[in-house]
Design a protein that fits this description.
The protein has eleven helices and 14 strands. By secondary structure, it is an alpha/beta fold. The chain folds into two domains: about 250 residues, P-loop containing nucleotide triphosphate hydrolases (Rossmann fold, 3-Layer(aba) Sandwich), CATH 3.40.50; about 80 residues, ACT domain (Alpha-Beta Plaits), CATH 3.30.70.260. Strands 6-7-8-3-9-10 form a six-stranded mixed beta sheet, sandwiched between helices. Helix 3 packs parallel to helix 5, helix 4 packs across helix 5 and helix 10 runs antiparallel to helix 11. The mean pLDDT is about 85. Bound molecules: adenosine-5'-triphosphate. It comes from Marininema mesophilum. Keywords: Amino-acid transport, ATP-binding, Cell membrane, Membrane, Nucleotide-binding, Translocase, Transport.
Length: about 325
Amino acid sequence: MIHLKGIEKTYPSRSGSNPVSALTEVDLEIKAGEIYGIIGRSGAGKSTLLRLVNGLEAPSSGEVWVDEKEISRLGEKDLRLARTKIGIIFQHFNLLWSRTVWENVAFSLEVAGKSKGEIREKVSELLERVGLMDRAHAYPSQLSGGQKQRVGIARALANNPKVLLCDEATSALDPETTASILQLLRDIHRDTGITTLLITHEMSVVKSICQQVAVMDGGRIIEQGRVADVFKNPTHPVTKQFVRQTENEEVADADTVGTVVHVRFRDFASAWKRLSEESTARGVHIRVLAGSIKPSEAWTFDLEGGRENVAQILDLLKETAVETEVIAGVQ
Ligand SMILES: Nc1ncnc2c1ncn2[C@@H]1O[C@H](COP(=O)(O)OP(=O)(O)OP(=O)(O)O)[C@@H](O)[C@H]1O
């Protein structure tokens, strides 16, 4: 769905010194339906990469393909059309402050030339989706950060995009609100299968929502793969640092912990039944990061909940599974 081939991006210098190389030899393929995370420190090149994907910037060389169109070569009219199929949410929401919640979401539908009836129906469906129907006539200044981001998400989805780009979408939010926004993005992905590309500097965000991840540093992709694999075997020092970041967060938060675990079952169906009953009873959220019903294949779960409760679910896994290996978080 999104394919970057041999990308180089150089900016002319701002002060007359050497040009700035923002991206070097970037190759990236994001398949339809994936949630893909790009993580990197400040200046790594994440925003530049995102701007290439929605055609706000052109690469100095290489190709950017989105939904089988070479974005970097489209004329203005075709690019505008292609952009309506790319929704984007921003760190600072970028809402229209003089318009209500309803009008913010309606705006991109008006621009796309939809009829009044279509707009009414779509806006109401979207506000219902993001849980903001009761705030439809409020102005952005009257909303909390999480509510503003919900408006941003509704607006991004207005034209039924095929791709959703999230630009540090939770970086301005507190941890609790971050969790609720990530949950909303997960639900939307589950219901629509929309291809989602998320850039962040927080490994906990990647761990909580992404299936695949690319780590960027100095304009290059230094490591990429399945999130579970990258967590298990980070090879580059920068990746190791990001993985440690989530472990430290877990230690810092004594009440809620997350643990990624590989498990192989003899009889998946009966093990899963017991596991889901026990985890519901203990308030532990189990998220499947990878797995298949083939008995020979291992599953990767992310267990999230109170420290004691997660430890109990881990004990249960060790008891019922043929093989259990904790790859991140509490043992
Ligand atoms: N318009 C521009 N003109 C000149 N240099 C730029 C421009 N935009 C970005 N850069 C440079 O390109 C490099 C990559 O920047 P980019 O904003 O893509 O990184 P980032 O990973 O998104 O960082 P941050 O999280 O701080 O935004 C940096 O060295 C930055 O200074």
